[in-house]
Amino acid sequence: MSLIVHKYGGTSMGSVERIQNVARRVAKWHAAGHQVVVVPSAMSGETNRLLALAKEISRQPDVREQDMLAATGEQASSALLAMALLAQGVPARSYAGWQVPVTTDSAYTKARIKSIDDTRIRADLEVGRVVIVTGFQGIDDGGNITTLGRGGSDTSAVAVAASLKADECLIYTDVDGVYTTDPRVVPEARRMSVVSFEEMLEMASLGSKVLQIRSVEFAGKYHVPVRVLSSLTDPLVPLEEEMASGTLITFEEDQKMESAVVSGIAFSRDESKITLVAVPDKPGVAYSILGPVAAANIDIDMIVQNQSIRGTTDFSFTVNRNDLVRTQALLNGQILPAVGAREVVVDEKVCKVSIVGIGMRNHVGVASLMFRTLSEEGINIQMISTSEIKTSVVINDKYMELAVRALHKAFGLDQDKSQG
Amino acid sequence: MSLIVHKYGGTSMGSVERIQNVARRVAKWHAAGHQVVVVPSAMSGETNRLLALAKEISRQPDVREQDMLAATGEQASSALLAMALLAQGVPARSYAGWQVPVTTDSAYTKARIKSIDDTRIRADLEVGRVVIVTGFQGIDDGGNITTLGRGGSDTSAVAVAASLKADECLIYTDVDGVYTTDPRVVPEARRMSVVSFEEMLEMASLGSKVLQIRSVEFAGKYHVPVRVLSSLTDPLVPLEEEMASGTLITFEEDQKMESAVVSGIAFSRDESKITLVAVPDKPGVAYSILGPVAAANIDIDMIVQNQSIRGTTDFSFTVNRNDLVRTQALLNGQILPAVGAREVVVDEKVCKVSIVGIGMRNHVGVASLMFRTLSEEGINIQMISTSEIKTSVVINDKYMELAVRALHKAFGLDQDKSQG
């Protein structure tokens, strides 16, 4: 008997029929003697519908109330899944985040999980129930409902799996695994049967939408084995077959890893580039600029400070496009006067393209092959950022697909040599 | 400064525009210096949408999960109203039932409120916030979400008003008060400016949809002054004008009451008549029949046991049409064999028509005028039930409108003599 956490995305929960299919799949695991905890997302479209109502009411809805609103989507889908299981004769019970409780900090709309009390879940598992825990949400110390931000259900699932020391966390989604890049952009993209945790972490942070980055961080921190697999297969496919599908995120690099230097190409259009022009070049200026931005809970991604010329410097960084308006307001209203820069220039027509691979550690020249490939396509690089296992560039977003295809080819990902 | 509880029904919360109108009305009260607690229903159609999903999943959805599902409607509308108030510059905060908490028993889908903790509400009122409390829902001792049943938001509002010892509880709805009968059936129906608590209690229990009966019971138990008024007027109408509109439910009979013997005609099509034929007539048989029905949490309304002939009797009672299938199952599966009756006969084509008025206490011949009026219209009476201030009859439902119109006229309610 294993303890398995299942997570189902919005598409998998998108209709009554699909919810019934999820119930069939869960029932199969339950019937095979496993303890199952399920973390469902809201039915697809529901969160958007709710947030659209909020936007109609207020251009900038109060964040506490927005979480109160958005959390209803997962509560409804969880109750529907419990009903579907019960209708199929499987004992089941659903819990909202606050009922578990899943305790978070108070950063509404992007809260972080602090702890999960597993008492209630374990008691239900002991008596043979399937336990359904709403994804995406929790409760803060003040008793307010919080949400974890877009894709937060992945994090909920992995956090629940970590808390329960589950044997595996299965992320059922509308793709059948993690690919070398997005197959919609590069048809030759291949599914990886295994990917290292560190690569997955980079892929997630760089814009691969398969898993939310925090869920990968959680998996890494607590060594939760996570498998990404399709919810669109026949729900009654044999268990062994199901467990051999998808992509396993592994922590055992040496044995299982694929041999490619670069294992995937990630990209994202969710970026905006902001440049403060003519900033006086003196110690502490980076902190004067980025301190208030971080304090406003805005994630800063890439940062580039150009060589100082005549005592001033240009300071560029990227933020998520959703945070652009708030960041601009902060810069113009508070930061610009404080640091004495000349102006704020914004470029929304940028994207980020990254190559990722743990093989890069032991290979030189990987970054230069990337730069050469882009140069051969006539693509100008605006910003560069590197880590041990990834290199990212910011480029004009009209070249995004071209860059991804060229790099996928240049790093040999089109071929089948490393099929796991 | 007064402490006022507002309740808004689903129609009043039915769109973004209407929610913004509710916010304008609440803001007016807040600006006039009053402390305001608002109890909103779900947006109209939302509860039905959710329950339809549940019905698609399961013919008989699990009741715990159904409450988990249905409670999301009020949570969403409460959050939207809070946003609308905040967008209009009014400090506001919404709470789900469990956050207050509103504690109920565990009778899912028709729970009863046990207590309301007003600590959090009072703290917010003290600092000048409008407090929004989700209607319709609570939490049981096991930490499960419960709902109070259809129309339960009225009860929530009155219970909150009772707990806070509010000066008045204003029930804003899509009609402008309580009428002598339904104006859609009798165009001559008049709005009452004042109605006694006891009459309102009978009207509610007899099918007038203006207020849920439990809310009237609560109002009576805690002497909460309740006013029913329209949410469809201009939200910025002067406060004095607003307070003079609608129908006030009063506890001071002698001074304010209208002089009519009968003050209203109530009716309901939500009835089903069930007859157990040829029940052995021995002591305890009524309990053997109705005990298990009550234990299944099914409300029994009228009960008639016919004269015993040759040692057997026919035993009839009415239940809400929604409970008919469950009641039949219970009777045929369990009760019929136990009491040794011959068969169960069901009549769904019935309705109940009632005359209500505290004036009936001191006037004889009121019931006989009712029976004569129906007889003159050729309407056969199937069951009769009386109390100090009401007389109800069960008749074939095709005569309902005819009966209501004839009685409204016979008791002089068409005339304007008792306008308050």
Which terms would index this structure?
homodimer, 420 residues, alpha/beta, Carbamate kinase, VC0802-like, 2 domains, 8-stranded mixed sheet, 4-stranded antiparallel sheet, 13 helices, 22 strands, 26% strand
Report on the architecture of this protein:
The first copy, chain A, has 420 residues and is α/β, with parallel strands linked by helices. Chain A has two domains: 3-175 and 210-254, 3-Layer(aba) Sandwich (Carbamate kinase), CATH 3.40.1160; 258-420, VC0802-like, CATH 3.30.2130.10. Helices cover 36% and strands 26% of the residues of chain A. In chain A, the strands form six sheets. Chain A has an eight-stranded mixed beta sheet, with helices on both faces. A four-stranded antiparallel beta sheet of chain A has the order 15-20-22-21, sandwiched between helices. In chain A, a hairpin with a 2-residue loop joins strand 21 (381-387) and strand 22 (390-396). In chain A, helix 6 (197-205) runs antiparallel to helix 7. The interface between A and B is large, with 38 and 39 residues.
Summed up:
The first copy, chain A, is of the alpha/beta class.
The best one-word shape of chain A is: globular
Unreliable residue runs of chain A: none
Helix segment tally of chain A: 13
**What's the CATH superfamily of the largest domain in chain A, by name?**
Acetylglutamate kinase-like
The SS-based structural class of chain A is: alpha/beta
Share of helical residues of chain A? 25-40%
**How many strands of chain A?**
22
Report the oligomer: homodimer
At CATH level 3, the topology of the largest domain in chain A is Carbamate kinase
User: Could you tell me the strand content of chain A as a percent range?
Assistant: 25-35%
> Mean pLDDT across all residues of chain A, rounded?
90
CATH architecture tag of the largest domain in chain A: 3-Layer(aba) Sandwich
Largest sheet of chain A: 8 strands, mixed
Order of strands, main sheet of chain A, comes to 3-6-2-1-9-13-14-12
